[in-house]
Amino acid sequence: MQREVMEMLNPRQDGVYIDATVGLGGHLEEILKVIGSGGRVIGIDRDDEALKTVDKKLSDDRVILKRGSFSEMENLLHTDGISAADGIFFDLGVSMLQLKNHERGFSFISDERLDMRMDRRQKTSAWDIVNRYPEKELARILWVFGEERLSRKIARAIVSRRDRNRINTCSELSKIVEGVYGGRRRFHPATKTFQALRIEVNKELDQLKAGLDSAQRMLKEGGTLCVISYHSLEDRIVKNFMTESSKKGLLKILTKKPQTPSAEELRSNPSSRSAKLRAAERI
Ligand SMILES: C[S@@+](CC[C@H](N)C(=O)[O-])C[C@H]1O[C@@H](n2cnc3c(N)ncnc32)[C@H](O)[C@@H]1O
After folding, report:
1. CA pair distance 141, 53, nearest whole angstrom
2. What is the C-alpha separation between 134 and 158, in angstroms, rounded?
3. Per-residue pLDDT tens for 133-157?
4. Which ligand 1 atom is at minimum distance from the Cα of 69?
5. Inter-helix orientation angle 204-218/232-247, to 10°
6. Residue to mutate, 4, 17, 21, ligand 1, most ligand atoms under 8 Å from C-beta
7. For a tag site, which of 29, 31, 110, 154 has the least CB within 10 Å?
8. Which of helix, strand or coil describes residue 261?
9. What's the whole-model pTM score?
10. CA-CA distances (angstroms) from residue 80 to 76, 84, 196?
11. For strand 251-253 and strand 85-91, is the pairing parallel, antiparallel, or unpaired?
12. Is the Cβ–Cβ distance between 176 and 159 less than 8 Å?
């Protein structure tokens, strides 16, 4: 949704922009194309691999890359003397790099160890959750973060299997979930389980709430907050945040209904089907 994001952000020549989830830098590059030599873009990511890739690809002194969570953006940018921005953009979820590099343990067809840590300095991985969390806690995570209706059955199947052998790889876990579902489905039956684990490993929903608060504090008057989310749990947080802030007179909502990908984008990139863009202006 690059075109839609750029229309909302509408970057100024000498503006300061924060790409809070730089990933492989696609959106950051679009911003660079339109700002002038006096403008700046700060790209944040928790993933060192993503930042190294972008750093190799771009050599532009208008770009500052920062490793860390967007929930700490004020601290991360303090050392560079940046305390306010004209636009802040979040493109939530995982990057293609994380999904396609099977060693990162995000993909349910991977024979690599269950991992899913966006920041590899962190200790707890999906392996720890699957092999160590109590059954009740596993069921709760699958229910709350995956909206998985078979959460209890899947948690029971995980625990009964790990009592015999540790569950080491992504594909081992996928097969356990497939066994609970049985039969064929439109989406892989492990989709919700993997979503739930990813959210728990990276504390994604807590991070998002804190990140939106930080962004609101950092935005200049008239600056734009733009967020693309990929599932209903994220979208609900963004929607509620913008609604509450607009009631407090801090934000003006620019998207009454979230924008969704065009038919053309859906054809060329079917995995964008769940994307929702919401934007608001700092008052
Ligand atoms: C969908 S990708 C972004 C893709 C990017 N817009 C592009 O054009 O390539 C999401 C990125 O956000 C990062 N991320 C997720 N949660 C984060 C957080 N709390 N703080 C910083 N980065 C985060 C992930 O590591 C991932 O690289």
Report:
1. 32
2. 10
3. 999 999 999 999 999 999 999 999 9
4. 20
5. 30
6. 21
7. 29
8. coil
9. 0.96
10. 8, 11, 35
11. unpaired
12. no
